[in-house]
Amino acid sequence: MAVSNYLKFWITSIKTFGGKAAPLFLVVTHTETKSADEIEMYLGEFWNAVHDDDRDWLSESLNDREYAVGLKTLNDNTKEILESMKKSIVELFTDENNTKVELPSSWALMEQLLYEGAWKVLSLSEIWKLNSSLPDEYQIKSDEEMSKFLNVFMTVAFF
Predict the structure, then answer these.
(1) 133 to 137, 139, 140, 146: CA distances (angstroms)
(2) What local confidence, expressed as pLDDT, does residue 2 receive?
(3) pTM exceeds 0.70
């Protein structure tokens, strides 16, 4: 049960902050002493723990980027797996479709207002007040849009 709650937490976080189209990697570590059958069994248990509603998009987001690697010994197999992972990462970040993020242009003005008061903790009502100071066509209109903006802004601001 704990594994399923842990997995649900991470899947929900990925969907919230990365979206269902976010490219993912599944890396199983500490496999030095495991046989291929044991690793396969573990991956099967992982997929069985994924809720049915999430299985298809998760599989699509992984797009065969599943790796099992032991890191204690840097043998030829480990080097090959790490090289494959590196190649996948480079491919993802050199593919314009994966690095392009489109956000409403009106968010830029709101972001600027928040940066002007950098490191000040604001209540949600204060943020809405700042929003209302913008010209009407640049204001965030709904609670849902404000929530999305704040999720993106907080992720970008701290990374």
Answers:
(1) 11, 8, 11, 15
(2) 56
(3) no
Cα separations in angstroms, 134 against 5, 107, 123, 143, 145: 41, 11, 18, 16, 15
In tens, the pLDDT along 68-121 reads 988 787 888 888 888 998 888 888 777 766 555 567 777 888 888 887 766 577
pLDDT, mean of residues 43-71: 88
Q: Compute CA 65 distance to the chain's CA centroid, rounded to the nearest angstrom.
A: 15
Q: What is the 3-state secondary structure (H, E, C) of the chain?
A: CHHHHHHHHHHHHHHHHCCCCCCCCEEEECCCCCCHHHHHHHHHHHHHHCCHHHHHHHHHHHCCCEEEECCCCCCHHHHHHHHHHHHHHHHHHHCHHHHCCCCCCHHHHHHHHHHHCCCCCCCHHHHHHHHHCCCHHHCCCCHHHHHHHHHHHHHHHHC
